[in-house]
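Q: Can someone sanity-check these two? First one:
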Amino acid sequence: MHNFDFVKPATVADAARALSADGAQALSGGQTLLPTMKARLAQPSVIVSLTGISEIKGVCAVDGGVSVGAATPHAVVAAEVGKYYPALAKLAGGIGDPAVRSRGTLGGSLANNDPAACYPSAVLASAAVVHTNKRKIAADDYFQGMFSTALEEGEIITSVTFAIPEKAAYVKFDQPASRFALTGVFVAKHKGGVRVAVTGASNNGVFRWTEAEAALSASFAASAVESLTVSAEDMISDLHGSAAYRANLVKVLTKRAVTAAH
């Protein structure tokens, strides 16, 4: 690993100033950045740690939902958010292994936007709002493709507000070695309709399966999606599963998620 300067600010404002330096990179949980640096695929000259900023940690109830600080580790989300949003707590508890859950954070996952990460599906299905040090970004506007988001250079995620649905569940088919989602589906039934978000399957990253949303909004039962098919055209194909395999998993896991939500 190359040499770099390390900065650990205590406030979001100080972090933003530190990130304005040339070659600066934010560090949240470090579950992606540090391995990438070790492989010399990234060589930032300044690491700005967000782990010392108390104002972006923790879980609390807000009007109609729950707010999770961006620097909150997965293990804390799993332990504390269950009384507000059980499906989100279960998702967090199934990320990686205990070591990953103790270090990885919500904000780090969303900023990286790995196409197989679990959290993006929860954010999209929950119609969540991503709060940064500059603005608020609706979930439908935030995700912009594989490893791509609406975040601007130096912008810091501070928290995410999740709308709590009437019923919800997340089901994923694990890649056994990494416990990333080979395919994962988060189904959420809101007053205004059902949202179905899929992760791990598409070359374009997390996406909403709108045909299933329409069918499930009319009848929230697993049988409602039985006649639907998912195109394999834009699906990921690798040694873990073909595009057709992942396309089939989307439908299978959606049905399981609806059953689990009940």
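And here is the second, same format, sequence then tokens:
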Amino acid sequence: MKYLKWINKHCNSLCGKTVAISGATGGIGVEVCNYLAYLGADLICLDRNADKSNKLIENLKIKFPKLNAKHISVDLEDFDRVVNVTNQLKKLNIDYLILNAGAYKIPRHKCSTGFDNVFQINFVSPYYIARELMPYIKERGGRVIAVSSIAHNYSIIDVNDIDFSSRTASSKVYGNAKRYLTFALYGLFDNNTTLSIVHPGITFTNITNHYPKLIFALIKHPMKIIFINRQKAALNLILGLFNGTKHNEWIGPNLFNVWGFPKKKKLITCSEQEANLIYKITENIFDNIEEKKQ
């Protein structure tokens, strides 16, 4: 298989390493888990659906009998649960954290944090997990891999509507959350290559499965032909395990961030002034969350 040949060329063994991944049962997540198991990693699958997660683990163990893997249930909309799971992960010697879970067009509501659920799932919860686990992962010489998106460039932030709760365009609501995640993490990690920002390209996953049924039936097959498949898209996340990204770098498909194999490149979609503001707003968000917890 050509993708395994690529992995053999660009990646090292992960035997003895523990990788926690959110969204393990999603389209790209499943492929990432297959590659991780192939490389010998121990897996912690962070998902809402225990049945799907445990079924994934069962299937992986058929192909990789020596695999050590387990499921931990977490719903990124439930911030109390996110905090509890993060505290569990601090005790599990995590070497790599892959923040893969995301949500695009879903029913909208406010979470307990006061933020829109799309903002919560794609930014608030994953950023919190990364923020809390960073010292532990850095000490072990590991890395945080965060999945961004070209959608982050669909709009600039609005200080009067941080979570875009007043917006209705899914691309902008989702893109705003990814913009916060991407540039807040750059600020948090401060050019430390314990971070890798990755973009898997455009591929056929549950996130693209949001169109009306008739339209979706018409476009799903052309989409599979035009855009890269999940196996190739997942390679971007795998490369992120072995290559850190400094400020305004990311790993994504080498042709227009849409096609091809992974490549590290410059990201010039946000001014330094806006990036600094994103990080400042983010730290204020978490300072307020900490105050409410006390």
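A (reply): Looked at the second one. The chain has one domain: 9-293. The first strand starts at residue 18 and ends at 22.
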